[in-house]
Design goal:
The chain has 472 residues and is α/β, with parallel strands linked by helices. The protein has helices at residues 25-34, 50-59, 86-98, 136-149, 154-171, 176-186, 189-195, 199-210, 235-243, 255-258, 281-293, 312-321, 334-341, 370-376, 390-400, 430-434, 464-471, and strands at 17-21, 40-44, 62-64, 76-81, 103-105, 118-122, 125-129, 219-224, 246-249, 266-269, 297-302, 326-329, 355-359, 380-384, 407-412, 420-425, 442-446, 459-460. Helix 1 (25-34) links the parallel strand 1 (17-21) and strand 2. The structure holds S-adenosyl-L-homocysteine.
Length: 472
Amino acid sequence: MARLTAFPAFHKVSGRTVLIVGSGAAAAAKARLLGETEAQLLIVAEDPSGELLADAARVGAELRRVRFESGHLDGVALAFAATEDEAEDHRVAAAARAVRVPVNVVDRPELCDFTTPAIVNRAPLAVAIGTDGAAPVLARHVRARIEAMLAPELGRLTTLAESLRAVVANVLPIGEARRRFWAKLFDGPVAARALSGDAAAARAEAIRMMSAEPDVSGYVWLVGAGPGAVDLLTLRAQRILQEADVIVHDALVPDDVIAMGRRDARRVSVGKRKGAHEATQAEIGEILVREAKAGQRVVRLKGGDPLVFGRAGEEMAALAAAGVPHEIVPGVTAAFAAAAAARAPLTLRGLSSSLVFATGHDLDGRTLPDWAGLALGGATVAVYMGRSVAGAVAERLAEAGLASDTPVAAVENASRTDETIFTGTLRDLPALAERGDVTGPVLILIGRALAEAQALGAAPIVPETARRTSAA
Ligand code: SAH
């Protein structure tokens, strides 16, 4: 194993003075970094820049507008030379070393007693990443990845653990029982509650876990999987997928998104797959409740956003009725992916100031949908589940008085590798339902704002062949 030239350690600075010498950007960067700690910051700056003044004020640092002298090192825990002037940095480093104050000199590893890591701050939890000074940019890359892995609220869990230490020491014998308790604490319903911000419930659950009969109630997350592209999953969805024991998903969620889950998690498909049994909404509710009651942490993965035509309402009602704790994780809804694909604004100053999420599915042939009026008023309409009823949608809107040359964009498989964009007008829309080559999920956007679409590689809604036939 290669050996490290430096030993990573956490230096206590709470209530102690940390000195930063310098007036410019390097000093300001250090002020921001140290501002994440409880250290008392002393900044010695002969000629502070505006940036440094602002950062110093923001982190509550004391700023002295004088030249550095060794007296500034009195009682200092750590010193940073950030003057961006070689001779001056040397002078600071020598003075610090003379009084045995550990010193860091910005961009001069050879003069440093210690280097500063890239930090992921989930106080009181911290992750420090260093490369022995060899590749700070790499350290920042690693940091970005760790940032994505750790919930912003992870500190709450650490705080909870800290608050439980004394109780645990009293109640649980050292060894296996205690170890098991902690493992369960960080990876179970207690963690889910602490992370969701309910500290009291988390603590109550933890105390219950210590007693002879632990409560094994699970947890359910209703998670939006986004429109299909794996990297449109939210960071939160990714993290929760790593935690879940069971993943209950629709057919609309692509395999590579489902694959983001823990390898050993159980996958349950409840969606429409040709030939397979499609679970009813009531059955889905029962599955979620049953798994949670068995102590499982369940992700209910839904295409797009769970609260947009996702029937999350019924599932939340079933969970609430059974007393199963649950939360919602939003996702990128199909309308946003389709608009992005067509590079079309959904709202446009002066032209379209509202956006309607509508479905083409419940048009019963007679009544005008209530959103037709909104479209007339200039709203952009995003029609979900509209492919097979595109003709009826167009007809109802035309009846309502919407101009037949109103721009339309329809996006099939938005955000996926097989994405296809069609553009045209309301007059063309019925042709969409007649095309045999459009079989994936389609989102239809209708409205004046679509005239601004910068769609690249879009095909006409009415295929060329059909045009020729109708012209003949
Ligand atoms: N909750 C989902 C919508 C579920 S309804 C969401 O927020 O996106 C299913 C409909 O969503 C489909 O009929 C289609 O109209 C639309 N849809 C879902 N994914 C899509 C995609 N990748 N491209 C185009 N439309 C999509």
